[in-house]
Amino acid sequence: MKFIIAITILALVIINNSEAKVFTKCEFARTMLNAGFSKASLPNWVCLVKAESSFNSRLRGPKNPNGSHDYGIFQINDKYWCKVGSKGGDCNMNCNSFIDDNISDDIACTKIIYKRHGYNAWYGWKNKCQGSLAAYQVNECF
Ligand SMILES: *[C@@H]1O[C@H](CO)[C@@H](O)[C@H](O)[C@H]1NC(C)=O
Ligand SMILES: *[C@@H]1O[C@H](CO)[C@@H](O)[C@H](O)[C@H]1NC(C)=O
């Protein structure tokens, strides 16, 4: 009996570890504010990340039609910005480092992408957020 309980607990720990880390809206908003983004910009980022990954920091997207993949909470594309298996791309980062729970490297790369293209770099933002941010206010988070 003890053995079975131990195995069950072990199994639950393993299952739990492989589960997606899904940020709450406010957890994400606070992380972005701490990383230097303005409060006024946060509804854009909250909407963008909801559209791209539903706040799942471990998401590796399905294969895009052109064969590329998108990584992490911001769904950063491996064609330009990062490389799979070693550092590379314009962010000089390993895409696999974008699918853990620590999003500080994702944010660093996102700053580079945003500097170059603005929010338009993300289809999720263009399709779902541009001009309709009312549902993504974050005042209750602070
Ligand atoms: C490939 O597709 C992704 C997603 O549709 C897009 O973000 C990326 O810019 C495309 N890359 C090229 C080289 O066309
Ligand atoms: C997250 O990763 C950065 C480096 O990318 C590191 O400096 C920082 O300490 C990490 N934070 C945690 C909580 O592990």
Automatic annotation (TrEMBL):
Into which EC class is this enzyme placed?
hydrolase
EC number of the protein: 3.2.1.17
Q: Which domain of life is it from?
A: Eukaryota
Catalysed conversion reaction? Hydrolysis of (1->4)-beta-linkages between N-acetylmuramic acid and N-acetyl-D-glucosamine residues in a peptidoglycan and between N-acetyl-D-glucosamine residues in chitodextrins
Per its UniProt record, what CDD domains does this chain match? LYZ_C_invert
What Gene Ontology molecular function terms does this protein carry? Answer: lysozyme activity
InterPro entries membership: Glyco_hydro_22, Glyco_hydro_22_CS, Glyco_hydro_22_lys, Lysozyme-like_dom_sf
Record keywords: Antimicrobial, Bacteriolytic enzyme, Disulfide bond, Glycosidase, Hydrolase, Signal
Q: Which Gene3D superfamilies match?
A: 1.10.530.10
| A Pfam family per the record | Lys
Family indicated by similarity: Belongs to the glycosyl hydrolase 22 family.
Instruction: Give the protein name, as stated in the record.
Output: lysozyme
